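Anyone up for a design puzzle?
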């Protein structure tokens, strides 16, 4: 078997440190028996900042010339079942580790004044969620991966169900049930792989094996059940608007920035390399579902009256672009899909943060309750405009390059898919600009008089995201260069799996018919 890893380049286990430092911070908060809210907040902030800075060497020391796993840690865990504690990152997963650690800081800061009950438990949940999300992106053993994948549901369930809005219990239960059912089907697939692949959970080793076509198809759909719910793809998307609407701001940011990326990451990390023939055979269906999500999510946004619900449905549309790029099965589509996952996390996370900032002042999310906000909060209006333009893919912002590559790959894979996806961009521009007009322009709502503009804390929260919007938009190769070798290796894996033609013969319209 080809050597697929590069052993840890550092003198300490960086991935374990980044994964479990938030757990240590959560334990310190738990030991704060007097429940001093100020100390709890500072412990959470200090832990999240330390985790972010410790993750920076993953970016600066990463070898961008190879597809092999780096910063690898591998130890026997349960020898009788051939289970290892096996961690590593490649050019795809390393970017999402950094996104997770940055998101944790922003979530702590945005909750600084808005979370006033059960503060200790809230920040413990935030830190544990961060730990488990990073673990998902770093795991190279299926047993370890599944533990992180499922463990992540518990603190997110609590964040939505305890600190959410009036319908928080319904939204939390719906979120939990949808994701749990899909994950259980994936567990069946993992067990089948374990038994057929030589009784190993080693993901890299399982990728070297060839599976019968029929088995690939069944396993593809078993894994699809978990990943499609997480993305979320149409028609299993209905948990997302409810979860976003009821979750506190930090919960919405985690959902948008990181958690829903795990579904698309699962397709990239597992479905394509493990089941290459089935992936190509199912491509017409996946392209169809992606195009439906793009158009459906965009059209539904036009009818929304709630700020968070509109942004939630926009996520359905934007993630449709991501899955379209992934299942274009060419370099442009795959790299565009990965970059757009990162872009969506930045921009949509920023939009939810922005909604949280104004909600703390007005205590309403109804679009009709706003109007003329640019007069009262000009700095806030400027920040929101940048994120609005990035969301619709204005050139020089990060949204443009991701959508451009996806559409380029989509047209190469299937012209109908590319044409129909373009309508989603047009509708997306319509609903975002109309939203901005209703909130910031028109006549000033008398109830908004005297609103205080963004303070220093809120400005500090959004400035890093503004920086990333333009960094990726102006110089995307600084991020694309990480994924070049990994994407190329993935395409080679598809070819060695018996896929000789990357162009799909059927059009999306034929599949629909």
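Challenge accepted. My sequence:
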């Amino acid at each position: 078997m080809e050597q697929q890893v590069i052993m840890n380049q550092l003198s300490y286990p960086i991935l374990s440190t980044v994964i479990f430092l938030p757990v240590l911070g959560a334990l310190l908060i738990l030991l704060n028996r007097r429940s001093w809210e100020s100390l709890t907040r500072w412990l959470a902030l200090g832990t999240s900042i330390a985790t972010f800075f410790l993750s920076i060497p993953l970016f600066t020391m990463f070898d961008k010339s190879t597809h092999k796993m780096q910063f690898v840690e591998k130890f026997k865990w349960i020898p009788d079942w051939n289970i290892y504690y096996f961690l590593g990152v490649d050019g795809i997963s390393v970017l999402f580790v950094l996104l997770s650690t940055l998101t944790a800081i922003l979530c702590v800061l945005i909750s600084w004044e808005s979370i006033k009950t059960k503060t200790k438990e809230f920040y413990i949940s935030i830190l544990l969620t961060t730990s488990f999300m990073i673990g998902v992106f770093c795991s190279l053993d299926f047993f370890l991966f599944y533990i992180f994948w499922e463990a992540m549901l518990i603190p997110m369930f609590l964040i939505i169900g305890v600190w959410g809005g009036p319908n928080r219990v319904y939204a939390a239960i719906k979120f939990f049930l949808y994701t749990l059912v899909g994950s259980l089907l994936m567990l069946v697939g993992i067990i089948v792989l374990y038994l057929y692949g030589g009784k190993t959970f080693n993901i890299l080793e399982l990728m070297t094996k060839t599976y019968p076509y029929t088995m690939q198809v069944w396993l593809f759909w078993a894994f699809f059940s978990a990943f499609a719910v997480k993305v979320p793809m149409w028609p299993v998307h209905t948990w997302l608007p409810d979860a976003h609407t009821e979750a506190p701001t930090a919960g919405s940011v985690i959902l948008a920035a990181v958690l829903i990326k795990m579904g698309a990451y699962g397709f990239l990390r597992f479905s394509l390399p493990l089941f290459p023939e089935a992936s190509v055979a199912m491509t017409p269906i996946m392209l169809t579902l992606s195009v439906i999500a793009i158009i459906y999510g965009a059209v539904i946004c036009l009818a929304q009256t709630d700020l968070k619900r509109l942004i939630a449905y926009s996520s359905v549309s934007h993630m449709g672009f991501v899955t379209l790029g992934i299942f274009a099965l060419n370099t442009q589509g795959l790299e565009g899909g990965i970059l757009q996952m990162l872009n969506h996390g930045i921009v949509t996370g920023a939009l939810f943060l922005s909604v949280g900032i104004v909600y703390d002042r007005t205590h309403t999310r109804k679009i009709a309750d706003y109007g003329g906000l640019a007069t009262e909060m000009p700095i806030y209006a400027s920040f929101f405009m940048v994120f609005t333009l990035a969301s619709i893919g204005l050139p020089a912002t990060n949204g443009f390059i991701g959508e451009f590559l996806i559409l380029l790959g989509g047209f190469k894979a299937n012209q109908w898919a590319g044409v129909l996806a373009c309508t989603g961009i047009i509708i997306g521009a319509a609903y975002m600009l109309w939203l901005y007009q209703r909130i910031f322009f028109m006549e000033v709502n008398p109830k908004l008089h005297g609103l205080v503009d963004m303070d220093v804390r809120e400005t500090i929260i959004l400035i890093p995201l503004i920086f990333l919007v333009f960094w990726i938009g102006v110089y995307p190769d600084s991020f694309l260069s990480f994924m070049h070798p990994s994407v190329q290796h993935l395409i080679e894996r598809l070819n060695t799996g018996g896929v000789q033609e990357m162009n799909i013969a059927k059009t999306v319209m034929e599949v629909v018919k």
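A detail worth pointing out: Residues 284-513 form one domain.
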